[in-house]
Amino acid sequence: MISTIHSLNVLLPIFYFTTFLIYLFDFIRENKILNNSKRLFLFITLCVHLFYLLLRTIEFDHPPITNVFEIFTLLAFSVSFAYFILELVTDIRGTGMYIILLSIAFQIVSSIFIKDLFYVREELRSNLLGIHVFSALIGYAGITISAVYGFLFLMLYNHLKQNKYGLLFDRLPNLEILEKLCFYSAVIGFVLLTIAIVIGVIWLPQSNLNFSYTDPKLLGTLIIWIIYGIGIYRKIYGNLRGRKLVIVSIVGFILTISSTILSNFLAKSFHSFY
Amino acid sequence: MNLIGISINHRTASVELRESLNLTNEEIVKLINSLKQSFLKEGLIISTCNRTEIIGIAVSEKINFNDLIASLINQKNINDVSSDSFEKFKSFLVIEHLFKLVTGIDSMLIGDNQIFKQVKDSFRISDRDNFIGFYLKKIMDSCLRIGKRAITETAISEGAVTVSFAAVQLIEKIFANLSKKSVLVIGTGETGEIAAKHLRDRGVTRLALTNRTFEKAEKLAKELNTAVFPFDNFKEHLHKFDIIVSATGSQNFILSKTDIEQTMKKRNYDPIVIVDIAVPRDVDPDCRNLDNVFYNDIDSLNIIVEQNLNKRKNEIPKVEKIISEELNSFIE
Most C-beta atoms within 10 A of its C-beta, which of A60, A204, B43, B113? Predict the structure, then answer.
């Protein structure tokens, strides 16, 4: 089983890259055959990835949530899976390559650094921790997708302002839809992050002796949560819209990534498991 | 089969001459009767703003192009039309010409699929007057198939190739649903009227008009069932509109950057699209630097038109391939 896991670890970035190439080719050429089959390729990639995650869980006797590189592979899966659902629901097919690009990045980092962890701390096998991590991950996936749509919004916005009517003008959905996708993804991210924080704050102090309210990861997440909270509030009740709204989403995403990197690699935190 | 055809079109004649030979449906029926008596066994007469054509199967070998040209000229009572103003086709070249026609690659606006409908209408008139027989029916069946293939298998008719369509294409890149947006058309001259009607056709329900001559705006508003504002105070209502189309004959800006700034403030900075199709321009182009203001003038719309026309031109080889396939199967 270990050798299958190792092979899949190498194959997964290739799967994502191939899917990305198909999406890219269709984006440029608008090929009718590829337009339908690219979704199938993504589905196959997700199935392979799910199989890999299940194998890891069975082989190492814990869900792949115990360190940052396990989280990264789960994040790669979550981002593409969330996009897959979004594509099915909205039938907006022109944005996939931008999202899959993120999955490639997360998966490559994970594939390079991930280790075979047979022994993990006992609290990492907890179900409640599973819910905490799972909701946080889906939350991060929402935030990531929101940022990608925000970025696409900005690109199309600038092209329209500069009277550039090239490939992006032809292929991307309109600004209103991009803004909606950006906002709703952020709302989903925010709600799930809220659940993750609530579970974390209530349950973790009881189960983890090293728990601290000044933990850098906790503080970073709280800052991100506040930024998104203010952004969502101002979108609904204030005048935050269009370009400014998507900039908030992109800044939120950059802070999320920075917070993850800083708290996992630089700061001492009970969230660091390596 | 003695197929013969003549065509006066945008390549061969001026707009004035084309206009003078344009036929109404009644005139087409009269001409069918006259052609039936002496020249053609079966026939089709196509008359649009860009072309008038007579195509048919001659009753004998002796019938030539000049007979058909003379019939058309006599019908319209026009002198001094040279035979050089006509394209002439015989045998399979007639079929090839018809195939090119229905796919839109022979149109002034390449890929204009209105011609497909116009040819179908012409066929209906000829059929009603018993001017369609076995051969023309067979040709028309092929024409219909090719016309459909060209639309579904190529991008020959895709993209906006007129300024008003380009404006709509652009607006649809900003807003998701035109039916939920409100539009103000400033100026109800010919351009403004076309824009207003086009937007109405595209599903805009909240449409309003304003014009320096109020009565003119009122008249068009009645026709389109829309609201109308007096020109003197239309700026007070500007913030209520998501899309502003301006097409007045004013020599100066009628909307300054400050006007748009104030409008945006009142709109809570909701996006606004300004389509300035007037020459000279009606709206200060500096307003394009404001956040969430999408300003487009005639030049920027023409960029879209040019790009789409080029894309359509690139599709011509694909259409020609379809024509060639169908022509081969027709001959077999």
Answer: B43
